[in-house]
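so im writing up the methods section and need the Peptide zinc metalloprotease protein record in one place, dumping it here so i stop losing it
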Amino acid sequence: MITDAQARGAASREWLDRIRLSRPDSEGRVLISTAAGPVARVPGLIGGILHAVKRDPVAESRLIGARCGVTAEQVEAALGAVAAMPAVADAPARLRWVQFRAPFTVQFTFFDPSRVIRPDGLLCRLVRVRGFWPVVIVLDLVGAAVVAMHWALSTSPLHSGISIAGYGWLMVGMLASMFAHEFGHAVVLTAYGGRSPRMGFMLFYLAPAFFCDVRDNWSIAREKRVRVALAGVAAQGVIAAVTGAVAFLVPREAGVALATVAFFNVAYWAINLIPFVKLDGYVALAGYLDRPNLRDSSIAAFRARASRMLLGGPRVDDGITRRWVAFGAVCFLFPSVLVIGVLLALSMNLSALGTAGDGVILLAIGILVVWTATRGWSGLKSSWSAGLSRWRAVASWSAIGAAVAAIALLLPLPVNAIAGVYVRDGQAQLATLSVTHVGELAGTEVTVHEPGMVLGRRIGVATVTGGFAPCEIPLSAAFPVSGSPYRLDGWCAPLDAAVVRAVSETRDDAGAVVLRLGTRAPVQWVAEIWGAAFTS
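--- predicted struct ---
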């Protein structure tokens, strides 16, 4: 029978259901995690108390203390200290199926991989084989080398278009690769004794991707954490090696899809190793250093020092060295740089699509502006209510606002657009679906490349000899599509005869051009896109 005192004790310990405890590490410490991620690593004595209470949540503090060699008061003090942690007090019992992760990630949970991955299953047993990882490393290197060959060889299927139906298979291959990446994390974590409770789809800095919850990674040994963190890129390296090699052996249409999948996997692999955002490279670094909150603590240290310099805040002795403060500064700034890079890439690839492309770009810019304004307003309110000098706060935030305005008005951003080239009635034509951003190009030299999923070798240089006029463009001149009879309404400008023969000899009778349109200040660039979206 459970006594009334035990029932009251159980009720007061309901927060224990919201935390997960790791096994003690080599120094006896225990990591506390919630559904949102790791919270703190506590000494072995406190970890032992928490483990004892988790095993018997209705036990009186006196009995728990006797088992752990401490007093009842010490048990209550330890429980009270952990329960008071904001990350524990505010933690949900389980994550909702839709989650927003600051600064630019939305996650949609689809299923629990622990229901299909068994520790004694074939994949998990294979991961534990002694020679498994050396073989994977060799295959990853082969994958990178094969993709480099595709990039360098002008005859590679990577530098060709693909049929409309082929795009469907290409999308399947890319999605399967991303799923394999995340599933690889779950398999390796399970093989080493952990558990992955959820997988799903997410928008990561505006880009579609899958995700896998590996917070249980902190319950396993350090070197195994690194393997779990890098399991995804390892899986994609193997996929790149297989698809890239087979692409040379199969018919051209299938080869284009396979070569593009190989290129995508290596690019995804390289981006995932960036350690300044919460991608695999960062998770591996934090796991190797045994610092669960490395990025957050480094950013907090940078912000504390920046606040002290700008607002006159108190000196903080947090034990963070200058090296990690610098790391925190890069982590703090890098998301903005990443999003700006994504916006410029979107602009280059979508601006030629007219109003629809401009709308997508404006939506992405709007999200960035709202997020920046929200963060700025939050920082302003915090500094205003922190008891610091009001005049210094006003002066500092005014200086920050002036710096942001100067960047918006003066920072030169490179503006590019992609256009096509085709031959009509013996005359080479520069073709685009929209001329709003392109402007007048008469007299401009353009470099023409072989079209493809990735631009191929240079096939010539031509000069634009006239202005744009309405025309019908072959689909292959607007997109890397082969074998399509469709034509689109667009705009064409005549080129001189220098590339007529070279373009006519390409597989799809088309070429591709990256138009270098100079630089624009951010405000000017956004104004042009706004005007194009609402005047075209």
